[in-house]
Design goal:
The chain is mainly alpha-helical. It has one domain. The chain is built from 3 helices and 3 strands, in the order E-E-E-H-H-H. The protein has a 3-stranded antiparallel beta sheet with strand order 2-1-3, with no helix packed on it. A hairpin with an 8-residue loop joins strand 1 and strand 2. It is elongated, with a radius of gyration of 18 Å.
Length: 132
């Protein structure tokens, strides 16, 4: 994870005027002088990667399935892969590249399922923690 990707903890900006009035905009370094802050989800996803690996191993051991496991090793303070791209990345170029790469891997796994059998199971495992 690049160190120059700023944290999303400052939040977005709920605009009060202009074409985006009533909507949150998500940009790094936004002074938000014409609105109020929108909260960005940044709570830590503890051990969900280990849990996903364990689920995959058990599926393999029990039924012989070899699932694709896609893990995003970025802090949610930098990128939230479960949000739409603007909120997820605050429009930071490196965060956008990571977000697109992660979702591309998911698309590839789905394409592989479709090519092999046409049926499959997609499980999105993520934790929830109190906090920011």
């Amino acid at each position: 994870m690049p160190s120059d990707v700023s944290n999303r903890t400052i939040g977005g900006c709920l605009r009060t005027s202009g074409p985006n009035a009533g909507y949150c905009t998500w940009l790094y370094n936004d002074a938000c002088v014409d609105g109020t802050r929108c909260n960005a989800t940044t709570a830590k996803d503890d051990k969900s990667d280990e849990f996903a690996e364990n689920v995959a191993n058990e599926l393999n051991k029990t039924w012989g399935y070899k699932p694709s496991v896609i893990i995003a090793n970025w802090s949610r303070k930098k990128v939230d892969f479960n949000r739409e791209i603007n909120e997820a990345t605050f429009n930071h170029s490196e965060a956008i590249a990571a977000y697109q790469g992660y979702h591309s891997f998911i698309d590839q796994a789905v394409d592989q399922i479709n090519a092999n059998s046409g049926t499959g199971l997609l499980i999105d495992i993520h934790g929830h923690g109190d906090g920011e």
